[in-house]
Amino acid sequence: MTTTLTTDASTEEEAPVLLAVSYLRVSTREQAERGGTEEGFSIPAQREANQRKADELGARIVREFVDAGESARSADRDGLQDMLAFIAATRVQFCLVHKLDRLARNRADDVKIHEALLAAGVTLVSATESIDQTPSGMLVHGIMSSIAEFYSRNLATEVTKGLTQKVAQGGTPMRAPVGYLNVRRTDEQGREVRTVEVDPERAPLIRWAFETYAQGQTSVTGLLRDLTARGLTTVPSPKRPSKPLGKNTLYKLLTNPYYAGVIRYKGALHPGAHEPLIKPALFDQVQSLLKARKAQATRHVQHAHHLKGLLHCGSCGSRMLLDFATNPRGTTYAYFVCSGRAAKKTNCTRRAVPVQVAERLVEDSYANITISEDDYRHLAAEVDAAFDKRGTGRDQEFADLTANRARLEAESDKLLAAHFTDAIDLPTLKRHQDRIRAGLADIEQRLTHHDEQHTGGRAFLHDSLRLLTDAHRAYAHSDDGSRRLANQAFYTRLEITEDEQLRQTLAEPFATMVHEAGGKEAKREHSTSSDVACSRKTLWVDVKGLEPLTFRV
Question: Could you give all domains of the chain from N- to C-terminal order, each with its CATH number?
Answer without folding.
Answer: 2-156 (3.40.50.1390), 180-301 (3.90.1750.20), 373-469+508-539 (no CATH)
